[in-house]
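Handoff note, outgoing to incoming analyst
You'll be picking up this chain. Sequence as last confirmed:
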Amino acid sequence: MNVSTSAGFVDALRAWVEAVMHRSMHGFLAYAKKNNLSMSQLGALMHVHRSGACGVSDISDDLGITNAAVSQMLDRLVDGNLVIREEDPADRRSKRIELTDQGSEILRGAMELRQRWFQGLADSLSDEERADSLATLKLLTEHTVDLEDFLS
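Most recent structure output, in case you need it:
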């Protein structure tokens, strides 16, 4: 494969992302299933974790699903004692969503599983391969952040 051309680089990058997503998500999906969670529910938990207390529309916007779908999902997460839904003191018409201790624990387990996969990948590389990859990953991360702003 000729990576000196943009198309060659894009092909290599696509293949790498597909492999990483497939391999790293396999255990993540099994963990969600074991805990009776859908990927959308896990995504909602992650959003609440990142945001702290948030509203239904915040989760809806992040996951790209309707407020009604998020509300139904939240009903199941509330029933499972993974989130609490309370009246927002700033706007009594709105609801504020927060993680429970059990929700935080479930999410911590999912993130630890993913971290162990990344550690396994790092451990499979030689010291030289890790050093070579580090500079490239930092560069790609920097450009990814810049591109995110560009595409917004």
